[in-house]
Amino acid sequence: MRLLTILGLTVLTASVSACGQNRSTSPNPNVLSADGSSSEARELNDPNRSTIWDVFGPNNSEQVTNVNRYLWAASLDVLSFLPVQEVDPFTGVIITGYGKPPGGGRSYRATVHISDPALAARSLSVALQTSGGAPVSAATTRAVEDAILSRARQLRIADNKL
């Protein structure tokens, strides 16, 4: 049993020490280049360089937002007449293509951003565009936001009755 432990530690030590090997392709890594820096210094200053310690460092990935599920579902439900182009539930963004509302004559495109996990008007932001480039009135945008908020409240009430 002790022999297995020693053998395992030896293999582990060899594996970790192999991580520190010099990977330069030049025969002498200390040779200076035309700009006066060594290849080792260039490797250490490379912004794309990664090490094993990057796993324990801060996470530099996209900012993740907690999205209210009722607002998310209500946005997709209210804007169901528009073709969905992109959705990102991690950042809370829904982008649609152009489409005509039922009974309407003008084509619209919507971008919805849900920025907070609360079921509140401050959590919802809707931007509308028309295909002809005509401005969308604030009343139309407000009406779409109100419809989404009303539908979200309906979904929450229906969910609590279960």
Architecture overview:
This is DUF3576 domain-containing protein. Residues 1-20 form the signal peptide. InterPro entries: DUF3576. By secondary structure, this protein is α+β, with helices and mostly antiparallel strands. It folds into 2 domains: 2-55, no CATH class; 69-160, Alpha-D-Glucose-1,6-Bisphosphate, Chain A, domain 4 (2-Layer Sandwich). Helix content is 35%, strand content 14%. The protein is built from 4 helices and 4 strands; from the N terminus they run H-H-H-E-E-E-E-H. Strands 1-2-3-4 form a 4-stranded antiparallel sheet, covered by helices on one side. A hairpin with a 4-residue loop joins strand 1 (84-88) and strand 2 (93-96). Helix 3 (69-78) crosses helix 4 (138-160). The longest helix is centred in the C-terminal third of the chain and has 23 residues, at 138-160. It is elongated and about 80 Å long. The model has no long low-confidence stretch (mean pLDDT 81).
List the defining traits of the structure above.
four-stranded antiparallel β-sheet; DUF3576 domain-containing protein; signal; DUF3576; Alpha-D-Glucose-1,6-Bisphosphate, Chain A, domain 4; alpha+beta; 162 residues
